[in-house]
Amino acid sequence: MPISQRSPRAPRKVAVVGISLSDCGRVDGPTPYALHAQAARRALADSGLGRDMVDGFASAGLGTLAPAEVAEYLGLRPRWVDSTSVGGATWEVMAAHAADAIAAGHANAVLLVYGSTARADIRAGRRTSNLSFGARGPLQFEAPYGHTLIAKYAMAARRHMHEYGTTLEQLAEVAVQARANAAHNPDAMFREPITVDDVLAGPVIADPFTKLHCCIRSDGGCAVLLAAEEYVPDTAKAPVWVLGAGEHVSHTTMSEWEDFTVSPAAVSGRLAFERAGVRPADIDVAEIYDAFTYMTLVTLEDLGFCAKGEGGAFVEKGRLRLDGELPVNTDGGGLSACHPGMRGLFLLVEAVRQLRGEAGGHQVRRPDGSLPELAVASGTGGWFCSAGTVVLGR
């Protein structure tokens, strides 16, 4: 039969079939490689599938030839790999790539793994806090003037405050509600309640951000295993389906960012919802990258949960809490639970836990008492340079 007359094979459905965290928080002993391995073993055990089923692998942030170096450490010989590195959005983008590869038949089961000892390395003197990502290429025009990563986020927050009247108290509410969610998560690094006044009274790190506006620094890793639909009957847990995903890269140089009040999630989110065939109003749980409080607020706007400029008013009324209108960062997020670096993979793990009903004391319930049906995980990379958004459903 001529190629033009052949019927195209229908794309396969793709599910998350295994998830896990490594030891997280204050982890002084293991290396980053060991945390990768721990998370990978636990995710495979969670899935019920054997290591020999994994023919795809995605990793970034460790090793000279990632993901080849990490795959070798784990004893894997994948025939499909991805080493996309776009900061915190890396893992949502990788999940989108993996789902596409599985749907097309290029891989059957893809393992995404991350691990970092960011906190332990600083304590041991193996590294220092990074002020800049580098000073080559376009960044050479910013780094010499002390334009640090946090300063870029702070500038964007100030612009939103100027344009829309967003207040420091509203930004502080994001941190307060993240901590309230963390209080119910025994794995969260910080669980003691905080108030808006506590946030405002802290030392200024980069105006307008005080210390509690900023994510914590922790150790830890996690893993997510995606597989084709025909493997689902052999898995140990009910599947969580990848319904749609989107990705977008906006800028690197701040002077090329057209509007500081719009993040790349405005594009990745729209694509993800369109491809999933759902609306923001249908979402039960949102896991959003929160290196700083402003990230949560502006991403809520750009994903369509509220109109542009209304993020401050949206977060004021406790909507982000576990029992709120839209539970956000249900584990406590990077502001309170853990943040070992590129946190995007943790968003996927928490979203799956919520949909499975495995979140324990911080489990979200719908008004009728049932488990969440739909979740969105949206990662942000760099200084709002990139975004990846994934919609998941039971």
Q: In terms of topology, how is this protein built?
A:
Blueprint: E1 14-21, H1 32-47, E2 56-58, H2 68-74, E3 80-82, H3 90-104, E4 109-116, H4 118-123, H5 149-164, H6 168-182, H7 196-201, E5 204-206, E6 209-210, E7 220-228, E8 240-249, H8 265-276, E9 285-288, H9 293-302, H10 311-316, H11 333-336, H12 344-356, E10 374-381, E11 386-393
Parallel strand pairs: 2-3, 2-4, 9-10
Antiparallel strand pairs: 1-7, 1-8, 4-7, 5-6, 8-11, 10-11
Helix pairs in contact: 6-9
Features:
alpha/beta, two-stranded antiparallel ribbon, Acetyl-CoA acetyltransferase, 394 residues, 11 strands, nine-stranded mixed β-sheet, single chain, disordered N terminus, 12 helices
What can you see in these coordinates?
There is one protein chain. The protein is of the alpha/beta class. The chain contains 12 helices and 11 strands. The chain has helices spanning 32-47, 68-74, 90-104, 118-123, 149-164, 168-182, 196-201, 265-276, 293-302, 311-316, 333-336, 344-356, and strands at 14-21, 56-58, 80-82, 109-116, 204-206, 209-210, 220-228, 240-249, 285-288, 374-381, 386-393. The chain has a 9-stranded mixed β-sheet with strand order 3-2-4-7-1-8-11-10-9, sandwiched between helices. A two-stranded antiparallel ribbon has the order 5-6. Helix 6 packs across helix 9. The longest helix has 16 residues, at 32-47. Residues 1-7 have low confidence and may be disordered.
